[in-house]
Each structure stands twice: as structure tokens, then as C-alpha cells.
Amino acid sequence: MAKPGTWFTGETLVFLRNLAENNNRDWFAANRHRDEVYVRQSALRFNMDFVPRPHRISRHFIEDPRPVGGSLSRIHRDTRFSHDKWPFKAHAGNRVPHERNCDVYVPVFYIHVEPGGTFVGVGMWLPDAPMLKTIRDAIVENPTAWRSARDDRAFTAKFELGSAMLARSLRGCDPVHPRIDAFQRENFAAWHGFDGNTLTRDRRLDAFTDAR
């Protein structure tokens, strides 16, 4: 069992790997305690230690321990409209959200834990059309700030900015605007990958936050 004060361990990855191999309700019911100890409790402890770091940017980022709708994403998949009918996610999604995360599209800090695919993410993932317009208007108003953030050497050395683009800009955007690359972005999020050793052995928060 994970000791108080520890975050994710090798058992976290073992559980998620086992879940991928036994993705059914009977197996999960028999191993639910492992999810609670090695995923949920570890993720919430990580967030409690991590939250002071985003506060350097804004005091509005919070740790939300609610079992539903909080910082930790549900492990159950919504299979209603998916061809993939596996009932559970074989990864853990853990975020430090803005306090208004239930009301509007807002930035988040996110850690994705998955054997062979762990990463941290920052920014806005797939904001809706009104929020996209708000972001574009801000870029038009202050293009220097956008370029400075996008091209910052410390940022680009560790983070990869999402490359997903809309097929065309939203109505009202000039198709030959010099910043059309920003206007056609589908998201304003970036990520940085980690290996298993960093995830399970390195307890220095700087390993996760130096590239902020």
C-alpha cells in the first residue's frame, strides 16, 4: 500500500497495465481497492502538493477532491456513442483546474498517467467557439504577447504545442490574416512527456513544474 505523502508508484502503472489486459467489470470490481489506493489517493496527494505551484500564476487554481466532477477524471468510459465498448479507461487523468471549471472553458494543469504514455499538459483543450473567438481577439489585440508565449525558449525546449487545426477559421476571421495560424488552432494546449522513472521515483515537484 502506498505510504502517506507518496504520489504515484510502480503499483500505479502495474494496476493500469493489468486493467488494460482485463478491461471488464468483474475484474475491476475485484480490484477496485487498487484503483482507490494506487490511482485515486495518489493523484489527490499529488494535487495537494502541486497546487501551490500554479498559485504563482493565479490563486484561482484549486485542488478539488470531490469523487465526481473533481480533479480526478472518472475511470469509467462513456461508451454510448463509441465503437470502443471497453468500460474503463486504462489511464488516469488528473488535473488542477481553475475554480470556474464547471462554468466556462478555462485553462487547466493536467497529468496523464499511462504505462508508456505519461505526460503533463497545460492550457485549453478544445475550447468552444465563443472561447476560441475570445482567444483570437486577444491575439489580435496583443500579437507580441502571443508570439512571446508561443516562441519562449524555456517553453519550446520542453513543451510541444498542439498542432490540431480547424479545416477553416470561424466565420468573421480574415482568411489571409498574418496570424491565421493562430486563428485556425483547434486548441491552445501543450504537453511534455515523462518516463516511468520520473513518474514513480522522482518526488521533486520541480520535475513536473520547472517548464511552467
TrEMBL record:
<dbReference type="InterPro" id="IPR012808">
    <property type="entry name" value="CHP02453"/>
</dbReference>
<dbReference type="InterPro" id="IPR015996">
    <property type="entry name" value="UCP028451"/>
</dbReference>
<dbReference type="Pfam" id="PF09365">
    <property type="entry name" value="DUF2461"/>
</dbReference>
<protein>
    <submittedName>
        <fullName>DUF2461 domain-containing protein</fullName>
    </submittedName>
</protein>
